[in-house]
Amino acid sequence: MKKLISLLGTVLIFVLTATFTLSAQQFLTPVSTITGDAKVVTKSGDVIEGDIRTAFFGGKGLKSFRIKDAETGDITRFKAEDVESVRIKMDGWGKFSTVMEQTSSLQKMATADFNESVDREYIYYHTVLWPGKKNKYMLSQLLNAGFDSKIKVYDYPAKKTASAGIGGITVVGGNAKKYVVAIDGETHMVEKGKYKKRDFDLLFSDCEKLNSLDKGDKDWSDMAAHVFIYDTECK
């Protein structure tokens, strides 16, 4: 009897572990604060490498931060409008990045390994044109680093439900309902409620493989898989 209970316990642990893995976030998890080793490229083309000491976030992404230059020791404060991109070392946070949850149709379609493609070494922020605005920009986190050669998916800053600090970086919870997506030199607001009827075609209309999917495989929850397949399988 004890052996049976032990065996059932082992099976239960395996099932729970598998369930956790499959239900993990698909895009990289957005963060709400950053510190540590970083590389900054300014709008004027200057490159500063050093240690980010403090960072301030607002309703439209990373607003400002202070970095100590590794060469000079000088501490400089940058506003979002002064910066082209920021790259921050992930450290321990990379362990919490995602695996791809797929239906069988999507699994068969993807020939590359999603988990090997995701860039877990760095967090990236880029200056992005706010969708629908001519001269309004935000410094937002790239969520599909490693499979972003055709489509770049950025965090849409919104209220998050929870947070956890890991190695100088705070990751935030909450299920995303919107992303800012850059494709073909333009930015778009992609929304959960409009993804299947509007945004899927907006992003992937030129990919025969993705357009052959059944409606059930075009869900919002599969967007990371769609972007990955578009990046690796579509011309």
Protein model, in words:
The protein is an alpha+beta fold and 235 residues long. It has one domain. Helix content is 24%, strand content 34%. The protein is built from 6 helices and 13 strands. The strands form 3 sheets. Strands 5-4-3-2-6-7-8 form a 7-stranded antiparallel sheet, with no helix packed on it. A hairpin with a 2-residue loop joins strand 12 and strand 13. The chain is elongated, with a radius of gyration of 20 Å.
For the terminal residues, how far apart are their CA atoms? 58 Å
How do the SSEs run, as a string of H and E? Answer: HEEEEEEHHEEEEEEEHHH
Query: What would you report as the Rg, rounded to the nearest angstrom?
Result: 20 Å
Helix content range of the residues, please? 10-25%
Largest pleated sheet: 7 strands, antiparallel
Helix/strand class: alpha+beta
Tally of DSSP helical segments = 6
Q: Which descriptor suits the 3D outline? A: elongated
- The number of distinct structural domains comes to 1
Strand content: 25-35%
Give me the count of strands: 13
| Average pLDDT reading | 77
For the largest sheet, list the strands in their spatial order: 5-4-3-2-6-7-8
Main features:
single chain; 235 residues; 13 strands; seven-stranded antiparallel β-sheet
